[in-house]
Q: What sequence folds into this?
């Protein structure tokens, strides 16, 4: 593969997840403002739970999206599925910026927000899996982990830009300006970014591995059916392995600014800044993890991530409770580094688990199912656990439980890094 094609493959895989997680980041980081706009008649705690409830509901359509986009990606090609998914996702995100407030149209405001988040969740469900399969099938055999690490790096970069934009808005606008129009600005950026991503993707050929299938007997006319008949054990193992990513990503990198400002009492701008520093280090660590997984194997790195969370999460959340900005930044860097051991390895691990004919479907179904049940609900569950137990440490317990499940799932799985993609 020539360098120009390699750059386009990386860019095409990067931008879709970047747009998706930029939207999620802005929604999470501006949750307090969005609550005031769409649920002004609720008390702050209930309104915040309703806002995160909409965030969670949009994830419940992700398994359906995983089936649809996975089927399309395995039947008609990775490139085609990814080109359409980014267009639909960007349009839904852009339209969120245009919704009138509750004060203008009443209950139709949160209902419209819910409808657009459902469309966004459905369309985004093919992005992570499709981009990972795309990169792994283009990558040299000994660098699949490094190439696939581009996908979580793109999600973190989207979160990073979302954090920076939210911090800038909160620092320069007063609360009334934020409620009136400031919160809408980030969502407007989705349209041009999505069009750029679609343009790049349509100018690429499909992956070499998928093109090989076009010359073979298409015995699997329904890839999802074949997936459940012949690969259900791998599907269960994959969903279990995703659990730490699902909970950890949204608790540590999306919910954390709200947690720091509402539960710990850190000033809002400082909360955004602490998360921004953690995201910067996360992006750097993620590529190191990809290289480590190529050298030492996927299982070793994933098991190390689970063990680290089981041992260190409790002390980390205790340290967050000190309220010291320097300590909070260091703890977030530590949690982010621990998370990269999982996140930087998971895309190549999941893509390698399934044969080419069902790779997109297997990845998309397992990844989106775990994220629908445990990822999108993580901010809501964390808020509910704190309210129910009265303990600021409750999100840490949730993280530790997810790490235990992932540890068992990965331990029961086969090592994938040394196998040929077509015959694994």
A:
């Amino acid at each position: 593969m020539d360098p120009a094609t390699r750059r386009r493959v990386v860019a095409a895989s990067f931008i879709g997840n970047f747009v998706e997680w930029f939207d999620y980041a802005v929604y999470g980081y501006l949750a307090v403002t969005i609550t005031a706009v769409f649920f002004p008649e609720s008390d702050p705690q209930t309104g915040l739970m309703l806002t995160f409830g909409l965030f969670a509901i949009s994830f419940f359509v992700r398994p359906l999206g995983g089936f649809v986009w996975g089927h399309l990606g395995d039947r008609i090609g990775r490139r085609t599925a990814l080109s359409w998914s980014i267009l639909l996702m960007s349009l839904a995100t852009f339209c969120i910026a245009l919704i009138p407030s509750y004060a203008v149209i009443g209950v139709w405001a949160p209902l419209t927000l819910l409808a657009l988040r459902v469309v966004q969740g459905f369309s985004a469900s093919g992005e992570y899996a499709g981009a990972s399969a795309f990169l792994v099938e283009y990558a040299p055999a000994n660098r699949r982990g490094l190439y696939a690490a581009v996908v979580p790096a793109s999600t973190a970069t989207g979160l990073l830009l979302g954090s920076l934009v939210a911090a800038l808005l909160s620092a320069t606008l007063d609360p009334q300006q934020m409620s009136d129009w400031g919160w809408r600005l980030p969502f407007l950026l989705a349209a041009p970014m999505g069009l750029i991503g679609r343009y790049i993707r349509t100018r690429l050929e499909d992956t070499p591995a998928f093109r090989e299938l076009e010359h073979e007997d298409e015995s699997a006319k329904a890839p999802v059916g074949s997936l459940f008949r012949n690969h259900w054990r791998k599907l269960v193992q994959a969903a279990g392995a995703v659990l730490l990513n699902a909970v950890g990503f949204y608790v540590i990198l999306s919910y954390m600014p709200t947690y720091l400002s509402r539960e710990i009492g850190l000033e809002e701008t400082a909360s955004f800044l602490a998360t921004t520093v953690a995201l910067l280090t996360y992006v750097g660590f993620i590529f190191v993890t990809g290289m480590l997984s190529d050298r030492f194997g996927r299982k070793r790195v994933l098991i190390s991530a689970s063990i680290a969370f089981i041992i260190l999460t409790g002390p980390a959340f205790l340290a967050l409770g000190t309220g010291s900005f320097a300590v909070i930044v260091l703890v977030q860097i530590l949690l982010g580094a621990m998370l990269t051991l999982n996140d930087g390895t998971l895309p190549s691990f999941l893509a390698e688990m399934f044969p080419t004919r069902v790779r997109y479907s297997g990845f998309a179904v397992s990844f989106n199912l775990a994220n629908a049940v445990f990822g999108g609900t993580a901010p809501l569950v964390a808020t509910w656990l704190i309210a129910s137990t009265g303990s600021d440490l409750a999100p840490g317990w949730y993280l530790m439980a997810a790490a235990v499940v992932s540890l068992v799932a990965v331990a029961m799985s086969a090592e994938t890094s040394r196998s040929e993609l077509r015959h694994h």
In short: Residues 232-264 form the longest helix (33 residues). The domain at 3-203+220-411 is CATH 1.20.1250.20 (Growth Hormone; Chain: A;). The chain has a mean pLDDT of 84.
